[in-house]
């Protein structure tokens, strides 16, 4: 029996690129006022170079977008000439500004309706994300019961450990859970390799290029309830 449905967040329930673009602009506006040396030396385009440098220095943080972002800010502020104590203070404040702005998402059409319908149907709902969107700050806490992120678990999808953390929390078997997401490797194959059912959100109708097929594919979020119903019926038929 299907008892729980988990969702990826970025590019599954909303488009992430415009969110991060706007959050980066908010960050740079704040840096202009509060860290002018940084703003004088770097542009938005330099964030990619700083990210490469930060990851080269600390490859162990690659699973965490939060740790990467903080490392980028510290590196940039240091290169801009700020002393160590000020780097720590400014980087913490700047990250908080970015993180708040990063929660300003615009949901895809039918996203909230699908969540509401699945909640009403009696499923436990949760999020499993590699990003640092927060279900409370994005307005999802009335729909989703829990969240697991790469930042907190210490690994990112498709690592089975993040799915196992969810299973331990819900006390469910893998076959009782459907995971829904847009990324073929991180979401669908990651979920299926952990024993879950995997639904591919393919809003842009891209070809499937992996050897293992998803259990269902939706090209619009108003198809989610039907996809879950089919998998639930399939599961019952196997019993």
From TrEMBL:
Gene Ontology MF, one: hydrolase activity
SUPFAM superfamilies reported in the protein's UniProt record: HAD-like (SSF56784)
Pfam families from the UniProt entry: Hydrolase (PF00702)
Keywords: Hydrolase
InterPro entries: HAD-like_sf, HAD-SF_hydro_IA, HAD_sf, S-2-haloacid_dehalogenase
Protein name: HAD family hydrolase
Organism: Neptunomonas marina
């Amino acid at each position: 029996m299907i008892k729980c449905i988990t969702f990826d967040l970025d590019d599954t329930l909303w488009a992430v690129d415009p969110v991060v673009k706007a959050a980066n602009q908010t960050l740079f506006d704040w840096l202009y006022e509060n860290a002018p040396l940084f703003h004088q030396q770097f542009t938005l385009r330099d964030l990619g170079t700083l990210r490469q440098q930060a990851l080269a220095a600390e490859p162990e943080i690659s699973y965490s977008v939060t740790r990467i972002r903080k490392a980028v800010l510290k590196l940039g502020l240091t290169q801009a000439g700020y002393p160590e104590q000020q780097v720590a203070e400014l980087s913490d404040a700047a990250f908080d500004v970015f993180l708040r702005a990063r929660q300003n998402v615009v949901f895809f059409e039918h996203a909230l309706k699908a969540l509401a319908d699945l909640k009403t149907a009696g499923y436990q709902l949760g999020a499993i994300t590699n990003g640092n969107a927060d279900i409370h700050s994005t307005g999802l806490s009335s729909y989703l019961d829990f969240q697991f992120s790469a930042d907190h678990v210490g690994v990112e999808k498709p690592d089975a450990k993040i799915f196992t953390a969810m299973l331990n929390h819900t006390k469910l078997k893998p076959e009782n859970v459907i995971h829904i997401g847009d990324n073929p490797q991180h979401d669908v194959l990651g979920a299926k390799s952990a024993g879950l059912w995997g639904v591919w959100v393919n809003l842009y109708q891209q070809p499937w290029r992996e050897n293992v097929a998803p259990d269902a594919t939706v090209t619009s979020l108003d198809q989610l309830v039907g996809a879950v119903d089919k998998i639930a019926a399939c599961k019952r038929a196997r019993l």
